[in-house]
């Protein structure tokens, strides 16, 4: 390839910029950037990371973990051992998780908590989150911060959750 062709190709690649990267390993699937729309398929043990802003990611299959970090992402998922939502104004909606962590401000999360063994756990900290949970096993809910709303409903004969809360203006309530 001539020097001129290499320069044109390199310039084109640089101009394209980071539009989203799926790792070549089977263990980590990573989306980084702004305004990316992507479908991902998890295999047991895969970890998904969504970083940046305003990305729309649809995840199918059983993930080990899903991390949403940044702002204004929309993530849907089927199953994850752990779901962590950090940043501002993200939305994560989906199926079952064993451990949930929600932090910083104004996240919207909908999920079913189900533990394989022991109790599933949701920890909500920060400001003005809206978390809607269906509890399908023994569960612990910890809500700290200001003006968070956590609503829950029981499924499949699950017991009422153990709840602890600290802060100001938090609402933890049973639906239906």
Automatic annotation (TrEMBL):
<protein>
    <submittedName>
        <fullName>DUF3060 domain-containing protein</fullName>
    </submittedName>
</protein>
<feature type="signal peptide">
    <location>
        <begin position="1"/>
        <end position="24"/>
    </location>
</feature>
<dbReference type="Pfam" id="PF11259">
    <property type="entry name" value="DUF3060"/>
</dbReference>
<keyword id="KW-0732">Signal</keyword>
<dbReference type="InterPro" id="IPR021417">
    <property type="entry name" value="DUF3060"/>
</dbReference>
């Amino acid at each position: 390839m001539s020097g001129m062709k290499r320069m044109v190709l390199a310039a084109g690649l640089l101009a394209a910029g980071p539009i989203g990267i799926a790792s070549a390993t089977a263990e980590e699937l990573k989306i980084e950037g702004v305004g990316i729309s992507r479908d991902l398929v998890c295999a047991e043990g895969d970890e998904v990371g969504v970083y940046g802003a305003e990305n729309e990611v649809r995840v199918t299959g059983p993930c080990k973990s899903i991390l949403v970090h940044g702002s204004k992402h929309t993530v849907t998922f089927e199953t994850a051992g752990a779901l962590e939502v950090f940043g501002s104004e993200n939305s994560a909606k989906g199926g079952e998780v064993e451990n949930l962590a929600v932090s910083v401000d104004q996240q919207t999360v909908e999920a079913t908590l189900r533990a394989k063994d022991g109790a599933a756990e949701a920890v909500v900290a920060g400001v003005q989150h809206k978390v809607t949970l269906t509890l399908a096993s023994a569960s612990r809910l910890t809500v700290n911060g200001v003006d968070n709303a956590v609503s829950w409903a029981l499924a499949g004969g699950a017991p009422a959750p153990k709840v602890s809360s600290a802060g100001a203006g938090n609402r933890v309530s049973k639906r239906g």
